[in-house]
Design goal:
The chain has helices at about 5-20, 70-80, 130-140, 200-210, 260-275, 325-330, and strands at about 1-5, 30-40, 40-45, 50-55, 60-65, 65-70, 85-90, 95-100, 105, 110, 125-130, 155-160, 165-170, 175-185, 195, 215-220, 225-230, 230-235, 255-260, 280-290, 290-300, 300-310, 315-320, 335-340, 350-355, 355-365. The chain has about 375 residues and is of the alpha+beta class.
């Protein structure tokens, strides 16, 4: 095998692989990428047995073949080559020779036959989707995914087709919940929703971030999902399990409703959270007519408070929240104002855009 390729092109493929390859893998070959040179160009494959990416790139192929080498080592080399072009050649015993200008490297590889096979791609169920819309949905839900590995069904986002070509994505870690519903026109042929794992979702976000406006397709087959865009395909295993009945967590319209500036609320939380307890990020939110007061009290540091003018007419109340959870919600929104609905000191808070519940978040209260 021997080919010549633009250094930037090879670097792009290796950057895509970094989030997937296993650095501390029990199978050493999972730290590698599989590079295949064919008549039409070069493909670079990364696979950790759960997520696989196949990236296609133009190259001048002198001799077809395949080799698998360390993804990290090859990226380090390609990042510092002196020339705009790189030549990769397979040597005896699965070594790979990399040359660029006067720079010359010879690195250890492994037999390409040992590289695990990716699940078969079933392109029959692929649906053309809007990249920017899917990217928005990921950003609005990914922060609420649980990190608790013992509750594996919460370690991803629930992807649920709805009527009228709409799709709902939901994530929760038990302390907060984020739900967004958007139009992704097309029939995904799903009998029920599926759970997309966090790692796969983050890799999907990275691929969409590269070029959101590119033609994108998404599909599901049995226990896997397939994403395609020009020159790239990604397959991932889905989480097997039943997502909780999230509708029960979302309160009906709260008794106490207020409107507040998103930027001002975010700034106030940053200021007051400086004196909150380190781990809980607990702040106290007190409501009275047209006034919202945020306070924090830390015996080791002191106390802080800040007052905000809000559109609110109702009874007084005080409730505690994790400031970081509310900050995450505010960072994911793009409206100038935020509608907040509260019940009592034991009820969750609901946040959404004014007059629009298509993106709704729920934050559980805490004792402070």
């Amino acid at each position: 095998m021997e080919f010549r390729i633009a250094a930037d092109e090879l670097k792009k493929a290796l950057h895509r692989a970094q989030g997937i390859v296993e650095r501390k893998a029990t199978m050493p070959i999972l730290s590698n990428v599989l590079i295949t040179a064919g008549k039409s160009g070069v493909t670079v494959t990364a696979f950790d047995l759960d997520i696989g990416i196949v990236s296609e790139h133009a190259a001048e192929v002198m001799k077809t073949g395949a080799v698998t080498v360390s993804a990290r080592t090859l990226l380090d080399i390609v990042s510092f080559v002196p020339d705009a072009q790189v030549t990769v050649k397979k040597l005896a015993n699965n070594y790979a020779e990399i040359t660029s200008g006067a720079a010359h490297y010879k690195i250890v590889g492994m037999a390409p036959e040992e590289f695990p096979k990716l699940p078969r791609e079933d392109a029959s169920n692929l649906v053309k989707i809007s990249g920017p819309t899917l990217l928005e949905m990921i950003k609005k839900t990914s922060y609420a995914i649980s990190n608790d590995e013992t509750r594996y069904i919460l370690n991803g986002v629930f992807f649920e087709p709805r009527e009228g070509g709409k799709v709902r994505m939901v994530a929760t870690d038990g302390h907060r919940l984020s739900l967004v519903e958007r139009e992704l026109l097309g029939d995904f042929k799903l009998k029920a929703g599926v759970i997309i794992p966090r790692k796969g979702l983050m890799e999907l976000k990275r691929l969409l971030d590269e070029a959101p406006e590119a033609d994108c397709q998404l599909g599901f087959a049995e226990n896997s999902a397939l994403f395609k865009k020009p020159g790239l395909s990604m397959v991932m295993r889905l989480i097997d399990g039943q997502f909780p009945e999230y509708q029960r967590v979302i309160p009906k319209e709260g008794e106490k409703q207020l409107m507040v500036s998103r930027a001002r609320l975010g700034d106030a939380l940053k200021r007051i959270a400086l004196l909150s307890a380190d781990k809980s990020n607990a702040v106290k939110v007190s409501l009275s007519e047209n006034l919202l007061r945020i306070t924090a009290n830390n015996p080791d540091l002191g106390e802080a408070k800040d007052d905000l003018e809000v559109a609110y007419r109702g009874g007084s109340m005080t409730v505690g929240f994790n400031a970081r959870y509310i900050q995450d919600v505010l960072a994911s929104m793009d409206t100038d104002e935020v509608a907040v609905e509260l019940g009592d000191e034991h009820s969750p808070g609901v946040m959404h855009a004014p007059g629009d519940r298509s993106y709704t978040t729920v934050v559980m209260p805490m004792r402070v």
